[in-house]
Amino acid sequence: MRTIGRLLLSAMMVVGFTTVALRATDDPPTAQTEPNAPPPPPQVPAVPKEAAPPPSVTIIGASDAHGVLGRDVRSTADENMGRIVDVIVDRDGKVRAAVIDFGGFLGVGSRKIVVDWGALRFGKVANKKDSISLELTKAQVAAAPEYKEDTPLVVLGASGTLQPLQIMP
């Protein structure tokens, strides 16, 4: 048993010396050993990046703001006008119009029309069941052309409230 222990100790010592010898020869060449070697690149200290400023936070009360997508739209005469399915914004991000899925029954036979944002009234939208009021009649909305993406918009507005959308090249 002692012989095996001595052999293992000798083998470990040989491996240890070999490792030390290999590490000594793995060092990169210095300028003394190679006179034509280019100088090492200058060391650039790592500059910590500045932390981003904290975002601004606004708290809006639950009764002060509500989502509009999917909300029912009714005329001032309480006629069903459809449901808001999209919101149109201009290049500055200003809300200009709403797309309403108008007519039909359960989505069959309906078509999308665009109404001016200013023609919508949000006075009573305390919960999801409350509808948004539209200052247009059902006949006016029925006569509006259908909205199709990537085509010029025909926006139906309440009398005297529509502002032209400026198209920039």
Write up what this structure looks like.
The protein is of the alpha/beta class. It has a domain at 72-156: PRC-barrel domain (SH3 type barrels, Roll). Helices cover 17% and strands 21% of the residues. It contains two helices and seven strands, in the order αββββββαβ. The chain has helices at 2-25, 138-142, and strands spanning 72-75, 80-89, 95-102, 111-116, 120-121, 132-134, 155-156. Strands 5-6-1-2-3-4-7 form a seven-stranded mixed β-sheet. A hairpin with a 4-residue loop joins β1 (72-75) and β2 (80-89). The model is unreliable at 13-24 and 160-165 (pLDDT under 50).
Give the SSE map:
Layout: H1 2-25, E1 72-75, E2 80-89, E3 95-102, E4 111-116, E5 120-121, E6 132-134, H2 138-142, E7 155-156
Parallel strand pairs: 1-6, 4-7
Antiparallel strand pairs: 1-2, 2-3, 3-4, 5-6
Architecture (CATH level 2) name of the domain at 72-156: Roll
Strand order in the sheet with the most strands: 5-6-1-2-3-4-7
Structural class: alpha/beta
Number of helices: 2
Taken as a percent bin, the fraction of beta residues is 15-25%
Q: Report helical residue fraction.
A: 10-25%
List keywords for this structure.
single chain, 169 residues, alpha/beta, SH3 type barrels, seven-stranded mixed β-sheet, 2 helices, elongated
